[in-house]
Amino acid sequence: MAGPLKVVAAMSGGVDSAVAAARAVEAGHDVTGIHLALSRNPASYRSGARGCCTLEDAHDARRAADVIGIPFYVWDLSERFHEDVVVDFMDEYAAGRTPNPCLRCNEKIKFAAVLDRAIGLGFDAVATGHYARLRVAADGEVELHRAEDDGKDQSYVLGVLTQDQLRHSLFPLGDTPKSQVRQEAERRGLRVADKPDSHDICFVSDGDNAGWLREKLGERAPNHGGDIVDDASGEVLGHHDGTYAFTIGQRKGLRLGRPAADGKPRFVLDIEPVSGTVKVGPRAALRVGRLEASHARWCGAAPGRLMGTVQLRAHGSEHRAVVTADGDHVDVELIDPAEGIAPGQSAVVYDGTRVVGSATISATHPAGSR
Predict the structure, then answer these.
(1) Which cysteines are joined by disulfide bonds (predicted)?
(2) Which class does domain 286-366 fall in?
């Protein structure tokens, strides 16, 4: 998109989105700031200056908009956020999977609900404080690339965006290190310049995912209680109060009472929510060589067969892989095996720095198997 645009700047109340909005104004766009009210009861979500869901965040966003000199509104998307992100998070854990609610929020809320509303109101684009870059290829396709600052790159959680959504998106911070963004915020007189970043799931107030799930799911069948068993021998090693408290690759909090015969730690290898069984075993058993995935979302054309890389966690490393897309089914052969990968996680596919798309892992296969 060329020339001045009518832009909605999504302002979370943090430093990144505030500077992104200011840069959009500086670029000559007609900018309106909006804050997303995502909690039906803000006090029940995050507390403190964590940059997402609190009343304090809404006030910080409004003050930043005043300093920048742009109109500001609050859009209430709490019902949709609850259904599309919070309930999905609970359902996935109840089913023994490990979801990433940030990807779901970007897919369903920030770049679907918000963009749809913005376009309906006559806006051209949505600007956010995500650290990622957009480039226009020779054929006119808008490409999503990793940010200049590898340490802050957020392209993984944007891997759900389609070509149409990318055409209506702006990421003004993609070429700037985070330290410079904070310095810029201070120069602009934005009070959020030193506000801490948010790292945990926004709707879990204290970062205790297992405790939050236990409270929300309670004795919801079939996840209330079960056995922790040795994967190799089938021996019952302990008991638990709910499968939702475990993730594949977990080591801490198993409370088994006695060590393995070789004295080495055990890890969660598998979760069976119907029977309530959690299987544990040695770290070597966590090595994954092949993934199957579904619910693919491509940033452009589907890749067919690609020799590239995949990232399997928001802050994880890249793994060289051969990715084959056939309709909605995606097969990933990992040249570099990964550890502790669970169904429900997202596999985001890269070709160099370019994000090709993403899919949700449905099955994993041990390294060395076919």
Answers:
(1) 105-202
(2) mainly beta
